[in-house]
Write a structure and sequence with these properties.
Blueprint lengths: L10 H5 L1 H6 L1 H13 L4 H15 L1 H4 L9 H19 L2 E2 L2 E2 L2 E2 L2 E3 L2 E8 L15 E8 L4 E8 L5 E2 L9 E2 L8 E8 L4 H4 L2 H7 L7 H11 L5 E2 H8 L15 H6 L3 E4 L3 H10 L8 E9 L10 E3 L2 E5 L22
Parallel strand pairs: 5-6
Antiparallel strand pairs: 1-4, 2-3, 4-5, 6-7, 7-10, 8-9, 11-13, 12-13, 13-15, 14-15
């Protein structure tokens, strides 16, 4: 019995038993990866961070895949491979037919291939007979998939490029054992905002970083905002400084308008959850406006801060200064 059958997201494991029955190595690697990341959050975070790393928003102000240079897009696969190895501590793969395999997982060699276009994985002929970890992520769709594929000649299109690399035939993509299929990629908030809102945030000017961060959290409320969006707004290395309490900084300025900024810390997450706001996850922040609870708020979710009870504000609630959220020791590591 598979260890994930009680998990609703393990449907693919049950649906594709034949692949597992005839390939015990595939099953072994699949179970190991899923045990390392039962919720898919670690894998998804690596993909989110890798795309943000490529965009390099703090230096370039970019927020969209189409803004990347061709060479940067080509480099994406290498960065995904490196960052997954750092996160999950996979061993280096062996040299196979003068081709260094990317990982060695439980003694099994596995190559890693990423494509932003579904089905566009370029598989080297040297990987024939070996396992490939195939990964797809689309920032525009906010979706990603990862699966294991045993490379077999009859399942591949003939390589037509200079390196003779191969792709999986569309009719044989059912031979891919999906660890996660169409999972949710943490949203690139700036990419998905209306153009008018985005232009209000990404103000022009080298000394507008603080104002851009303030506008980001003022205009995009109750929505998870990743580090990449904050870095792109700040356009400076110490982007976290723009968030902290202090004269002219985001938390202080917005608190006077009743807006608090919760980070990915247990105390902040508990407050967001209790009051009914979006809960920030690893590397994320959520802003939301609060007001002191009044009788007309009836039984709305509330949280106690500074000796008073607070609820999420509605458009009809007048602005009032919000309380400070609890201090956290590791704020710079978010």
């Amino acid at each position: 019995m598979l260890p994930f059958e009680e998990d609703a997201r393990a449907a693919t494991w049950i649906a594709n038993q034949e692949l597992l029955k005839r390939d015990p190595e595939l099953l072994k690697v699949a179970e190991h990866i899923r045990c390392l990341d039962r919720s898919d959050e670690r894998f998804a975070a690596v993909l989110r961070d890798t795309i943000d790393q490529l965009l390099n928003g703090e230096a370039t102000g970019r927020y969209a895949w189409k803004q990347l240079f061709k060479t940067e897009k080509t480099h994406a696969g290498t960065l995904v491979e490196i960052n997954l190895q750092r996160e999950f501590r996979f061993d280096d793969g062996s040299d196979v037919n003068n081709h260094p395999m990317d990982y060695r997982i439980l003694g099994i060699d596995v190559d890693c291939k990423f494509s932003q276009d579904f089905g566009g994985w370029m598989i080297p002929p040297e990987a024939m007979g070996y396992l490939c970890l195939l990964i797809w992520a689309d920032d525009y769709k906010s979706r990603w998939s990862a699966g294991l594929f045993r490379v077999q000649a009859e399942w591949l299109n003939t390589g037509g490029n200079r390196d003779k690399k191969l792709t999986v035939k569309a009719e044989h993509r059912d031979k891919i054992f999906w660890l996660w299929r169409d999972a949710k990629l943490p949203e690139n908030v700036l990419l998905h905002l209306p153009e008018v809102t985005r232009s209000q945030i990404l103000l022009k000017g080298s000394r507008k970083g603080q104002q851009r961060v303030i506008e980001l959290f003022r205009l995009v409320q109750n929505r998870r905002i990743g580090r990449g969006a904050v870095r792109t707004a700040a356009q400076q290395l110490d982007y976290m400084a723009r968030l902290r309490e202090g004269d002219g900084r985001a938390r202080t300025v917005l608190r006077k308008e009743g807006i608090v900024i919760a980070g990915p810390y247990s105390k902040h997450q508990a407050i967001a959850r209790q009051i009914g706001a979006e809960v920030p996850q690893r590397g994320e922040f959520v802003s939301f406006r609060v007001v002191e609870a009044q009788p007309h708020h009836a039984d709305r979710p509330r949280v106690e801060l500074d000796g008073k009870y607070w609820v999420l504000a509605t458009p009809d609630d007048p602005a009032e200064e919000a309380p400070r959220l609890p201090k956290v020791a590791n704020e710079s590591d978010a």
